[in-house]
Amino acid sequence: MAENGLLDVTGRVALVTGASSGLGRRAASVLAASGARVVGVARRAEALVEWQAEVGDNGAVIAHDLADRDGLADLARAAALPFGAPDIVVHAAGINTRQAADDVTPEGWDVTLSLNLSAPFFLSQHLVPAMKEKGWGRIVNFASLQSFRAFPGGIAYGASKGGVAQMTRAMAEAWSRDGIVVNALAPGFIRTELTAAVFDDPGRAARNAAQTCIGRNGEVDDLDGPLMFFCSEASKYVTGQIMMVDGGFTAK
Ligand SMILES: NC(=O)c1ccc[n+]([C@@H]2O[C@H](COP(=O)([O-])OP(=O)(O)OC[C@H]3O[C@@H](n4cnc5c(N)ncnc54)[C@H](O)[C@@H]3O)[C@@H](O)[C@H]2O)c1
Ligand SMILES: O=C(O)[C@H](O)[C@@H](O)[C@H](O)[C@H](O)CO
Predict the structure, then answer these.
(1) 192 in any annotated domain
(2) How many CB atoms lie within 10 A of CB 167?
(3) Residue 111 placed within a domain
(4) Would 3 be classed as within a structural domain?
(5) How far is the CA of 93 from the centre of ligand 1 (A)?
(6) Domain range enclosing 73
(7) Cα 151 to middle of ligand 1, angstroms
(8) Is 237 a catalytic residue?
């Protein structure tokens, strides 16, 4: 925590999707270690329970398929049971089906858009009324390099992440007057399960690292600072913004 308390999240309740692995799991752990009570959501119950054992009493878990839009109202209700209504939501669940444009299937397209784009919107819509009542809320979306750049096999993923970038601005316009700031983290190439295919190709991993200003690809803890900024009082006059956390990939 910063000495002036700006990054403090003690006593806040956070809902983190994608908490079973990668960036979502890291975000859930960092928030819990910083004093928030965290409800972790993802599909894999076993991995969630393992995460909960790590964080102890500050964590609760719900196994849920976020691509099923009809279940999101129930999920929002269930998420309020362990610690009260969430003040913070971090939408980290996401997939990349990596289908080439000529081969994209309707199923691949739909699940990508449902999980990456629709779930953050509709789940937020169910959580916002309680945030409005408190006059304070933080919504953190996950955009990507692919919100702005095209990569092979990225048409559905890129469409979803381009949508996340614009949705973040539109959510900010809709809800910020009620004390809810809405921003997005846009990671570069960070080593997780999602990017295993990228990191398993040494040539591609090296080219991506060389494209950054910092000279390396990312690790999950590279997002800790930007995450805490967006989840805390520090970001009270920052809304509708997409923060590149890409080692300077897009600056170069
Ligand atoms: N890793 C990167 O380089 C990178 C770069 C840019 C953006 N992102 C974004 O960051 C977010 C986290 O990605 P990651 O790299 O940690 O990936 P990951 O594969 O490690 O984690 C994804 C999480 O989403 C969950 N999930 C997948 N389908 C789900 C469903 N139907 N319902 C509920 N949960 C589901 C998984 O269980 C997992 O917890 C994603 O939105 C991703 O698009 C990642
Ligand atoms: O894994 C891949 O193949 C995709 O390129 C993405 O998932 C990227 O890692 C990320 O979106 C870039 O910011």
Answers:
(1) no
(2) 20
(3) yes
(4) no
(5) 4
(6) 13-187+225-242
(7) 17
(8) no
What contacts 9, CB < 8 A, 6 or more positions away?
31, 34, 35, 36, 88, 228, 231, 232
Closest CA to 232 of 36, 72, 76, 94: 36
Count of domains for the chain:
1
What does the alpha-carbon distance between residue 15 and residue 128 come to, in Å, rounded to a whole number? 12
- Interval 12-49: pLDDT, tens: 999 999 999 999 999 999 999 999 999 999 999 999 99
Q: Which residue has the tokens 């846009």?
A: 186
What ipTM describes this predicted complex? 0.96
pLDDT-derived band at 1, boundaries 50, 70, 90: very low
Catalytic residue among 122, 142, 157, 175: 157
> What percentage of the chain carries pLDDT values higher than 90?
98
Predicted TM-score of the model (pTM): 0.97
Instruction: Give the chain's end-to-end CA distance (angstroms, integer).
Output: 32
